[in-house]
Design brief:
Blueprint (H helix, E strand, L loop, with lengths): L25 H17 L1 H8 L3 H6 L6 H11 L7 H19 L1 E2 L10 H7 L1 E2 L1 H14 L6 E6 L3 E9 L2 E6 L4 E5 L1 H8 L7 E5 L4 E3 L1
Parallel strand pairs: 1-2
Antiparallel strand pairs: 3-4, 3-7, 4-5, 5-6, 7-8
Helix pairs in contact: 4-7, 5-7
Amino acid sequence: MIDIPFLRRGEKAGPEKGKEEPEEPPAKHKCRAALYKHIIERYREQIEAGESKTIPELRGLVNPNDKTVAAIADHMRGSFHPYVYEEKFLLAARKAFEFVRDDIELESLPVDFWLYPEDIVELGVADAVDKAMLLCSLLIALENESARVVVETDGTRRAFVTFDFKGSFHILDPVQDIFESGVKEDLIRKHVQGDNYKLVYEFNNKEYEEW
């Protein structure tokens, strides 16, 4: 069993019992953060070149079989007795959505850098696209293979997740706190910026499509 420190609301990873870590002065923490940012910005081009992804590699970032994703999905399924997909999936999807929305802090990275599920859960932070990929991975692990990440980009990126279930189309955006269902065309018209963005693409672990 993998230890996932953020599975239960309000639990945070910390030092072992009896081993309190001394609190670092805020000024020192700020200085170190500035130093790290300076190093990252100096090597931005090399970092981003190494993070460039082909379409198959991008699809691979949605990974329902990842050990961290599987452990979280198993924990969520375990809260239902039993977990029957047709009856419990939407409730489980809500749990996955709330986990990504509430337990993973939004953090815009200074460079293009992909975080994997283990990184996201360990650090408790992710940008909008990494949040969407984690949520999509969880939904597929909960047996809905229609889940996809949708990314809108014009230099900045917005990302959300869609899936079909029992004839309804769903849009989930853990950054904007959107969990809506309805007719696909209506929801796309409502939530996708369309012409304001240069590129809209969707993908999961098996497919990739540009709009």
